[in-house]
Amino acid sequence: MKACHLMKLAIMQPYFFPYIGYFQLINSVGTFVIYDDVNYIKQGWINRNRILLNNTDYMLSLRLAGASSFKLINEIQTGDNKGKLLKTISQAYAKAPFYGDSISVIEDALSNNESNLARFVARSIVLVSEYLQIKARFLLSSEIAKNNSLKADDKVIHICNILGAKHYINASGGTELYSKQKFMDAGIKLEFIKSKPITYKQFNNNLVPWLSIIDVMMFNSKEAIIDMLNQYDLV
User: Measuring CA to CA, which residue among 129, 61, 131 is closest to residue 102?
Assistant: First the structure.
Protein backbone atom coordinates (compact mmCIF):
# COMPACT_ATOMS: atom_id res chain seq x y z
CA MET A 1 0.00 0.00 0.00
CA LYS A 2 1.14 3.57 -0.63
CA ALA A 3 2.32 5.57 2.34
CA CYS A 4 0.16 8.63 2.96
CA HIS A 5 -0.66 11.37 5.43
CA LEU A 6 -0.77 10.21 9.03
CA MET A 7 -2.77 13.06 10.54
CA LYS A 8 -6.14 11.27 10.26
CA LEU A 9 -6.29 7.87 11.93
CA ALA A 10 -8.82 5.14 12.70
CA ILE A 11 -8.39 1.90 14.65
CA MET A 12 -10.72 -1.09 14.35
CA GLN A 13 -10.64 -4.82 14.94
CA PRO A 14 -10.43 -6.89 11.73
CA TYR A 15 -13.97 -7.78 10.68
CA PHE A 16 -14.89 -10.49 8.17
CA PHE A 17 -16.14 -8.80 4.98
CA PRO A 18 -17.69 -6.02 7.09
CA TYR A 19 -20.59 -3.77 6.17
CA ILE A 20 -20.05 -0.62 4.11
CA GLY A 21 -19.79 1.62 7.19
CA TYR A 22 -16.47 -0.05 8.02
CA PHE A 23 -15.12 0.92 4.59
CA GLN A 24 -16.49 4.45 4.97
CA LEU A 25 -14.35 4.67 8.08
CA ILE A 26 -11.26 3.43 6.22
CA ASN A 27 -11.95 5.89 3.40
CA SER A 28 -12.20 8.80 5.83
CA VAL A 29 -8.63 8.52 7.10
CA GLY A 30 -5.06 8.48 5.87
CA THR A 31 -3.99 5.55 8.04
CA PHE A 32 -6.11 2.65 9.24
CA VAL A 33 -4.80 0.50 12.08
CA ILE A 34 -6.15 -3.05 12.19
CA TYR A 35 -6.42 -3.82 15.91
CA ASP A 36 -5.21 -7.42 15.91
CA ASP A 37 -3.61 -7.66 19.37
CA VAL A 38 -6.79 -7.31 21.43
CA ASN A 39 -8.98 -10.13 22.70
CA TYR A 40 -11.16 -12.10 20.31
CA ILE A 41 -14.89 -11.50 20.84
CA LYS A 42 -17.19 -14.48 20.43
CA GLN A 43 -20.43 -13.88 18.50
CA GLY A 44 -18.94 -10.69 17.07
CA TRP A 45 -17.97 -9.78 13.50
CA ILE A 46 -14.34 -10.92 13.46
CA ASN A 47 -15.07 -14.18 11.65
CA ARG A 48 -18.65 -13.82 10.45
CA ASN A 49 -21.06 -11.56 8.62
CA ARG A 50 -24.45 -11.57 6.94
CA ILE A 51 -25.21 -12.03 3.26
CA LEU A 52 -28.47 -12.30 1.30
CA LEU A 53 -29.53 -15.90 0.67
CA ASN A 54 -32.99 -16.77 -0.69
CA ASN A 55 -34.14 -13.18 -0.08
CA THR A 56 -33.29 -13.20 3.61
CA ASP A 57 -30.22 -12.53 5.72
CA TYR A 58 -27.91 -15.48 6.31
CA MET A 59 -24.95 -15.65 8.69
CA LEU A 60 -21.71 -16.57 6.93
CA SER A 61 -19.16 -17.86 9.46
CA LEU A 62 -15.47 -18.57 8.98
CA ARG A 63 -14.59 -21.67 10.97
CA LEU A 64 -11.85 -21.19 13.56
CA ALA A 65 -9.38 -23.39 15.41
CA GLY A 66 -8.81 -22.76 19.10
CA ALA A 67 -11.00 -19.66 19.33
CA SER A 68 -11.28 -18.21 22.84
CA SER A 69 -12.15 -14.84 24.35
CA PHE A 70 -8.98 -15.30 26.44
CA LYS A 71 -6.83 -15.21 23.29
CA LEU A 72 -5.80 -12.27 21.15
CA ILE A 73 -7.23 -12.14 17.64
CA ASN A 74 -3.78 -12.78 16.18
CA GLU A 75 -3.37 -15.90 18.31
CA ILE A 76 -6.28 -17.72 16.62
CA GLN A 77 -6.15 -19.87 13.49
CA THR A 78 -8.64 -20.10 10.65
CA GLY A 79 -10.53 -23.33 9.97
CA ASP A 80 -11.10 -25.35 6.82
CA ASN A 81 -14.43 -24.10 5.40
CA LYS A 82 -13.21 -21.29 3.12
CA GLY A 83 -14.07 -23.24 -0.03
CA LYS A 84 -17.54 -23.94 1.28
CA LEU A 85 -18.05 -20.25 2.06
CA LEU A 86 -17.07 -19.31 -1.49
CA LYS A 87 -19.54 -21.86 -2.86
CA THR A 88 -22.32 -20.45 -0.66
CA ILE A 89 -21.57 -16.89 -1.79
CA SER A 90 -21.48 -17.96 -5.44
CA GLN A 91 -24.81 -19.75 -5.17
CA ALA A 92 -26.39 -16.79 -3.37
CA TYR A 93 -25.28 -14.14 -5.86
CA ALA A 94 -24.73 -15.92 -9.18
CA LYS A 95 -27.60 -13.95 -10.74
CA ALA A 96 -26.70 -10.60 -9.17
CA PRO A 97 -25.87 -7.87 -11.74
CA PHE A 98 -22.26 -7.28 -10.63
CA TYR A 99 -21.36 -10.84 -9.70
CA GLY A 100 -18.81 -11.03 -12.52
CA ASP A 101 -17.08 -7.84 -11.38
CA SER A 102 -16.78 -8.70 -7.71
CA ILE A 103 -16.55 -12.48 -7.29
CA SER A 104 -12.84 -12.51 -8.21
CA VAL A 105 -12.08 -10.23 -5.24
CA ILE A 106 -13.99 -12.53 -2.88
CA GLU A 107 -12.34 -15.60 -4.39
CA ASP A 108 -8.90 -14.05 -4.02
CA ALA A 109 -9.59 -13.30 -0.35
CA LEU A 110 -10.96 -16.74 0.49
CA SER A 111 -8.26 -18.65 -1.40
CA ASN A 112 -5.56 -17.10 0.79
CA ASN A 113 -3.51 -19.83 2.49
CA GLU A 114 -2.78 -17.61 5.51
CA SER A 115 -3.90 -19.50 8.62
CA ASN A 116 -3.56 -16.65 11.12
CA LEU A 117 -7.05 -15.20 11.66
CA ALA A 118 -5.94 -11.57 11.99
CA ARG A 119 -3.75 -11.63 8.90
CA PHE A 120 -6.32 -13.56 6.86
CA VAL A 121 -9.11 -11.11 7.62
CA ALA A 122 -6.80 -8.10 7.27
CA ARG A 123 -5.82 -9.18 3.78
CA SER A 124 -9.47 -9.49 2.74
CA ILE A 125 -10.10 -5.94 4.02
CA VAL A 126 -7.14 -4.65 2.00
CA LEU A 127 -8.30 -6.48 -1.15
CA VAL A 128 -11.79 -5.00 -0.98
CA SER A 129 -10.34 -1.56 -0.23
CA GLU A 130 -8.09 -1.79 -3.27
CA TYR A 131 -11.08 -2.81 -5.42
CA LEU A 132 -12.93 0.29 -4.17
CA GLN A 133 -9.87 2.49 -4.83
CA ILE A 134 -9.49 3.45 -1.17
CA LYS A 135 -6.09 5.07 -0.66
CA ALA A 136 -5.58 4.49 3.09
CA ARG A 137 -2.38 3.03 4.47
CA PHE A 138 -2.89 -0.12 6.56
CA LEU A 139 -0.99 -1.11 9.69
CA LEU A 140 -1.38 -4.01 12.11
CA SER A 141 -1.43 -2.80 15.73
CA SER A 142 0.74 -5.77 16.74
CA GLU A 143 3.53 -4.38 14.57
CA ILE A 144 3.51 -0.99 16.33
CA ALA A 145 6.02 -0.72 19.20
CA LYS A 146 3.82 0.52 22.06
CA ASN A 147 2.92 0.15 25.72
CA ASN A 148 0.54 -2.81 25.70
CA SER A 149 -0.35 -2.36 29.37
CA LEU A 150 -2.53 0.61 28.44
CA LYS A 151 -6.25 0.02 27.95
CA ALA A 152 -9.21 1.50 26.08
CA ASP A 153 -8.92 5.20 25.15
CA ASP A 154 -5.50 5.55 26.81
CA LYS A 155 -4.12 3.00 24.37
CA VAL A 156 -5.83 4.68 21.40
CA ILE A 157 -4.37 8.07 22.36
CA HIS A 158 -0.97 6.37 22.81
CA ILE A 159 -1.13 4.92 19.28
CA CYS A 160 -2.21 8.29 17.87
CA ASN A 161 0.82 9.92 19.49
CA ILE A 162 3.20 7.25 18.18
CA LEU A 163 1.92 7.67 14.62
CA GLY A 164 1.65 11.45 14.78
CA ALA A 165 -2.11 11.53 14.30
CA LYS A 166 -3.92 14.70 15.38
CA HIS A 167 -7.38 13.67 14.16
CA TYR A 168 -8.91 10.39 15.33
CA ILE A 169 -12.12 9.09 13.74
CA ASN A 170 -14.05 6.34 15.49
CA ALA A 171 -17.09 4.24 14.67
CA SER A 172 -20.33 5.72 16.04
CA GLY A 173 -20.52 2.98 18.68
CA GLY A 174 -17.67 4.67 20.50
CA THR A 175 -19.69 7.73 21.50
CA GLU A 176 -20.44 6.19 24.89
CA LEU A 177 -16.85 5.07 25.42
CA TYR A 178 -14.64 7.96 24.35
CA SER A 179 -14.55 11.54 25.63
CA LYS A 180 -13.88 14.31 23.12
CA GLN A 181 -12.48 16.40 25.95
CA LYS A 182 -9.95 13.73 26.95
CA PHE A 183 -8.70 13.49 23.36
CA MET A 184 -8.63 17.28 23.07
CA ASP A 185 -6.52 17.49 26.23
CA ALA A 186 -4.07 15.15 24.45
CA GLY A 187 -4.02 17.43 21.40
CA ILE A 188 -6.19 15.13 19.27
CA LYS A 189 -9.49 15.95 17.59
CA LEU A 190 -12.01 13.13 18.08
CA GLU A 191 -14.97 12.64 15.73
CA PHE A 192 -17.43 9.82 15.16
CA ILE A 193 -18.54 8.59 11.76
CA LYS A 194 -22.28 8.21 11.22
CA SER A 195 -23.43 6.48 8.04
CA LYS A 196 -26.31 7.95 6.08
CA PRO A 197 -29.00 5.51 4.88
CA ILE A 198 -27.64 3.35 2.05
CA THR A 199 -30.27 2.05 -0.37
CA TYR A 200 -29.97 -0.04 -3.50
CA LYS A 201 -31.89 -2.71 -5.39
CA GLN A 202 -31.19 -6.31 -4.47
CA PHE A 203 -33.26 -8.98 -6.21
CA ASN A 204 -37.05 -8.66 -6.10
CA ASN A 205 -37.16 -8.45 -2.32
CA ASN A 206 -37.46 -5.49 0.00
CA LEU A 207 -33.99 -4.23 0.84
CA VAL A 208 -32.27 -6.11 3.64
CA PRO A 209 -29.92 -3.33 4.81
CA TRP A 210 -26.43 -3.29 6.31
CA LEU A 211 -25.34 -6.70 5.08
CA SER A 212 -21.71 -7.58 4.35
CA ILE A 213 -19.84 -5.50 1.77
CA ILE A 214 -20.17 -8.63 -0.39
CA ASP A 215 -23.87 -7.81 -0.87
CA VAL A 216 -23.12 -4.19 -1.78
CA MET A 217 -20.52 -5.30 -4.32
CA MET A 218 -22.85 -7.81 -5.95
CA PHE A 219 -25.66 -5.30 -6.56
CA ASN A 220 -23.76 -2.09 -7.31
CA SER A 221 -21.11 -0.92 -9.74
CA LYS A 222 -17.72 0.02 -8.39
CA GLU A 223 -18.47 3.66 -9.19
CA ALA A 224 -21.74 3.57 -7.24
CA ILE A 225 -20.03 2.04 -4.20
CA ILE A 226 -17.25 4.63 -4.30
CA ASP A 227 -19.99 7.27 -4.13
CA MET A 228 -21.55 5.46 -1.16
CA LEU A 229 -18.23 5.60 0.68
CA ASN A 230 -18.73 9.33 1.14
CA GLN A 231 -22.33 9.13 2.38
CA TYR A 232 -21.65 9.80 6.05
CA ASP A 233 -21.43 12.61 8.57
CA LEU A 234 -18.72 13.25 11.14
CA VAL A 235 -20.16 14.20 14.51
Answer: 131
